[in-house]
Amino acid sequence: MKNLIVILGLVVVGFISATAQIPPVDENGLAIGGYDVVSYFDGKAQKGNAKFSAKQNGTTYWFVSAEHRDTFKKEPAKYLPQFDGFCAWGVAAKDTKFPINPETYDIIDGKLYLFFNGLFDGKNFNTALLWSEETTKLKEQAHSKWPTVKNK
Predict the structure, then answer these.
(1) How buried is residue 133: exposed, middle or buried, by Cβ count under 10 Å (0-12/13-18/19+)?
(2) Within the chain, where are the H helices?
(3) In whole angstroms, what is the distance from residue 94 CA to residue 142 CA?
(4) Residue 12: how many CA atoms within 13 Å on its side-chain side?
């Protein structure tokens, strides 16, 4: 019985951490919770390591390897998330900046888009699903609205 309680506790902690919402850049200047922006382009969001870090525009990025860090340094604009890392759907549909779940993303036309995916009003709310229903329209809206939303 004790083992079952421990296992259930770990599952709950894992679920909470997996659905945690974070700001695109935290109070210490770390981008997207330390996730490696190059790893998204390899098909899997991976948490980076502080020992492989790089700064871009005053923001710190962590990487899973020196190779990923060096790849980023050669062409940072290629890997930076759209809308300064805020939820793409929030920019497009709500004209606002939502936090993101760094494991909920899409690569479209070689660009990284991040999304909110977590509890909202007691229910799971995954904006990537809404985005996927109208990607072309929402992508155009987000890029059009971003200059105004950015300054809010």
Answers:
(1) exposed
(2) 2-18, 37-40, 66-74, 76-79, 88-94, 127-133, 135-150
(3) 10
(4) 6
Tokens of 105: 């993303």
The Cα 80–Cα 82 span in angstroms is 7
The DSSP string of 50-61 is EEEEEEETTEEE
Q: pTM value?
A: 0.86
- Classify residue 119 by its DSSP letter: E
Closest CA to 37 of 3, 80, 2: 80
Q: Which token pair is 52?
A: 């492989």
Residue pair 105/112 in contact by the 8 Å Cβ criterion: yes
The predicted pLDDT at position 62 comes to 98
pLDDT, block means (10 residues), the chain with 152 residues: 37 44 96 98 97 97 98 98 98 97 97 96 94 97 98 92
Say how far apart CA 119 and CA 59 lie, in whole Å. 27
Here the tokens at position 93 are 């549909």
The residues pairing with 108 across neighbouring beta strands, listed in sequence order, are: 111
Distance CA 69, CA 72 (A): 5
Other beta carbons within 10 Å of 77: 7
What pLDDT is attached to residue 9?
A: 39
